[in-house]
Amino acid sequence: MDLDAPRRFRTVDRTGALGRILGLPDQLRAAWSLGQSMHLPSEYSDASDIVICGMGGSAIGGDLARAIVEPEARVPLAVVRGYDLPGFVSPSSLVVLSSFSGTTEETLAAGDRALEVGARVLALTTGGTLAARAAESGFPVVRFAFDGQPREAIGYSLLLMLGSLARRGYVRDCTDDVEATALLLDAIAGELGPEAPAERNQAKRLAERLHRKVGIIYGGGLMGVVARRWKGQFNENAKRWAFFEELPELNHNAILGYQFPSGVAARVMVVILSSTLGHPRIALREAVTSEVLDRWEVEAARVEASGNSALEQVLSAMFVGDLVSYYLAMLDDVDPSDIETLAYLKARLAEATSEQ
Asked: Where are the domains of the chain?
C-alpha cells in the first residue's frame, strides 16, 4: 500500500487504530486528570516497596513508569509479568495490579497472592473480575473507560500509575511534564502523521526501510524499555517478527552474533533509540555499536528522543515507534487490531482448563 494514500488505510484499518494512536496526547491529559482525582488511603503512603503487576500493554506502562521515576523514587520499584510475586512482598508492600480488561489471569493470580500476604493493593482497570475483587476485598480501584486494545491505552496504564505514586508522595508531581509531553506529541503527530508525505516523514521512511527486514531495536537507559515497546508494537500491530536488546548489556554478547547463520545480516535492520538524558557512556556505546554494525554490513537507523523531561523523551520515542508499526501494517495490508491468534490461544487455554 502507498503510505502517501492515507484514505486507503481505512480499508485495512477497520476499527480505526490510527485514530487511537494519534489520540495519545488527549489520552494523556484525560488519564492525568483522572489520576489527580483518585483517593488512596493514608496508609498507602509509607510502603517499603512497590510491585507493579501486569502483562502485555498493561505491563509496559509499569516498565515506563519505573524507568521515568526510578532515579528519584524513595522506595524500590519492581515490575512483575507472571503469576507469582517476589518473596520480599509483605504487608508493608504496595502492589499495583494493572489489567486493562480486568480478566488477565496472571495479574489476578498475583493479586490473590498479594491479598494472602496482607499487602496494600491498588487496581487499575476498565472493570472485569479485577474490579469485582476490589469491591469484594475492599482495596481501591481506579476504573477508566477506553474503547480499543490494551496497548493503545498506554496513556492510562502509565499516567494512572504515575498519578497514584505522586498522590502518595513516592515521586514528584509531574503535571507540567504531562502537558509539555502532550503538546510535544501533538507536534509529532503533525510531522509524522498520515497526511505528512514520506519524503519528510521519518516514520514512513523508516517503515519502508524495515518492510522487508526483521526489526531489532536497541536502546539504553530510558530507551531500553522503549525498545521493548517498539518490539511489542511491531509484533501486535504489524504482525511481524521483531526483537529488542538493551545497552550496555548487548555490547557484552549480541555484537558477537552478527556473523551466522550466513545471510541473516542482510535480512535484519537495527534501530537505535537514543536519549540525551542517558549516561554519557551509553551515547559512546551507541556510536561504537553503529560502527560494528557497519563492519558487518547490517543496516541501521537512529531515532532521537525529543523533549527535555524523562516523560517527554520516553513518550516521544515511543510515539514514533507506534506510528512506524502502524505504517508497517499498512505496507502489508494488515489490520493492526486483528488479534485472531491471541483469541485462539486464550480459547485453547480455557478449553484445557475446563478439561482439568
From this structure: 17-173, 197-331
